[in-house]
Amino acid sequence: MRIDILTVVPQLLDSPFSASIMQRAQDKKHVQIFVHNIRDYSTAKHKNVDDYQYGGGAGMVMSIEPIASCIDKLTSERTYDQIIFMTPDGEMLDQKTCNSLSLYKNILILCGHYKGIDERIREHYITKEISIGSYVLSGGELAAAVVVDAIVRLIPGVLNDESSALSDSFQDNLLSPPVYTRPPEFKGWRVPDILLSGNTKAIEQWREEKAFERTKERRPDLLND
Ligand code: 6GU
User: Fold this and answer.
1) Tens-place pLDDT, residues 37-86
2) Which of 108-117, 135-144, 165-174 has the largest mean confidence?
3) Does 86 contact ligand 1 (Cβ within 6 A)?
4) Domain with CATH 1.10.1270.20 in the chain
5) Residue 135: pLDDT band by 50, 70, 90 thresholds?
6) CB of 192 shorter than 6 A to ligand 1
7) CB of 133 sitting under 6 A from ligand 1
8) Is the pLDDT of residue 162 over 60?
């Protein structure tokens, strides 16, 4: 899979992909991530990427030319399955969307900043708009990092234990059950006996029960889906 991210603040995307699972996924060639600085595509005198909005009002708007020029270059080189715009008024990200995005070959992610982007970009280039929650971030970069992390870990081979992503919270609309590791007792707090019993069938059943209990208590909305 290839992911191209367009931003005016590329520094924000330096570290999220350069450690742990995301770095290994790139080292093992499961994914290629390219971050493009929209400013490099500005032909303005001072490399401006924004301008005042028509009709007046506070806040700058990201200009159409540098973004269009960057997207045009990339789309001339390959076909993108989706051209995604990160925006708080997009469709809310969930595991189902992540699952389908993880199957694509090439995706392009545009991060918004300032007051927004020229609407013509959204009308003529964007195929999907994604939000990561009902709150406002300063820009789409951190949200893009969330999307990339959530989809890259689903690519087969990225996680060591292939079944691991499948048993994630949300994959079956259930939250994960509690987990424990050594020691079996700490300050008098004991690991549930059943997990030490070696009875795999009983353990499996206990985990299912706990997952269901936890979901009912914390996210009953998932059970209604
Ligand atoms: Cl995708 N962008 C911004 N700027 N804020 C957000 C968001 C995206 N998702 C939730 N809040």
Assistant:
1) 999 999 999 999 999 999 999 999 999 999 999 999 999 999 999 999 99
2) 135-144
3) yes
4) 167-224
5) very high
6) no
7) yes
8) no
Omega cis (within 30) before 183? yes
Span from the CA of 68 to the centroid of ligand 1 (angstroms): 21
Task: Verify whether ligand 1 is closer than 6 Å to residue 89 (CB atom).
Answer: no
| pTM for the model | 0.95
pLDDT of residue 163: 58
What is the arithmetic mean of pLDDT over 159-177? 79
Q: How distant is the alpha carbon of residue 170 from its chain centre?
A: 15
Cα–Cα distance, 122 to 114 (Å, whole number): 15
Contact 129, 90 (CB under 8 A): yes
Q: Locate 134 and state its tokens.
A: 């009902």
* Cα 180 to ligand 1 centroid, rounded to whole Å: 34
Q: In sequence order, what DSSP letters do the residues of 73-114 get, joined into one string?
A: HHHHHS--SEEEEEEEEEEEP-HHHHHHHTT-SEEEEEEP-T
Q: Which residues pair with 4 in a beta bridge?
A: 34, 108
3-state secondary structure of 169: coil
The finding on whether 7 has its CB within 6 A of some atom of ligand 1 is no
Q: What is the mean pLDDT of the chain?
A: 95
Could you say which of 3.90.1150.10, 1.10.1270.20, 3.40.50.12160, 1.10.3860.10 is the CATH number of the domain covering 167-224?
1.10.1270.20
Domain 2-152 has CATH 3.40.50.300: no
Supply the residue whose CA is at minimum distance from atom 7 of ligand 1.
88
